[in-house]
């Protein structure tokens, strides 16, 4: 499992891109996608929704289980990946590329996000 160095990670297994004009992209890690199994349904926050760091903002359903999606930061959702809603398998096949979940205009970022190396150690 390889975690891109430029991203930061939450202990709930979400990744966060560096902010571009205040907007960051959020997805789940390869570790989480593998643990879930084949994702068959994705419920994302809607554009305009406010998400709060550490709180649930959506849901991922796989052939094995249903898992909550947590926001790694606080802010306003500015985009939701409709490609993933229409083809949930993108979460498994490309968790760091086409399988991204939503974009958020960050208003607050917790100090406990992990670097790629810290996340790799955490996820074991």
What does this structure look like?
It is a single chain. The protein is an alpha+beta fold and 124 residues long. Helix content is 19%, strand content 35%. It has four helices and nine strands; from the N terminus they run βββαβββββααβα. The protein has helices at 30-36, 82-86, 90-93, 116-123, and strands at 8-9, 14-16, 23-28, 39-43, 50-51, 56-62, 66-70, 74-80, 102-108. The strands form two sheets. It has a six-stranded antiparallel beta sheet with strand order 1-2-3-9-8-5. The chain is globular and about 35 Å long. It starts with 7 loop residues before the first strand and ends with a helix.
Quickly describe the structure.
With 124 residues, the protein is an alpha+beta fold.
Identify the notable features of this structure and list them briefly:
124 residues, alpha+beta, six-stranded antiparallel beta sheet, three-stranded antiparallel beta sheet, 4 helices
